[in-house]
Amino acid sequence: xxxxxxxxxxxxxxxxxxxxxxxxEPVVLTRNGEADLVVMSYEAFRRMEARFKLQxxxxxxxxxxxxxAPLIEHSEVMARIRERLHAAKE
Length: 90
What we know:
3 strands, YefM-like fold
């Protein structure tokens, strides 16, 4: 992670925004020499959020396997997805 003083965003927002998009990872902003905020592009945030959601689902699936939860056949999963997609269109 890159670290920048908070003044950088006040002095030239456009350049700082471009920097964040080019860097494509979080930037720590400091205030009075201490870490204060973390800033990233919206696209980087969405990717991070998607990874978090996937990791959460994988952990749940692993726990279900350990607990011997009944497994659902692929065809049943696909049928449920199709039902949800169809219901969303209505």
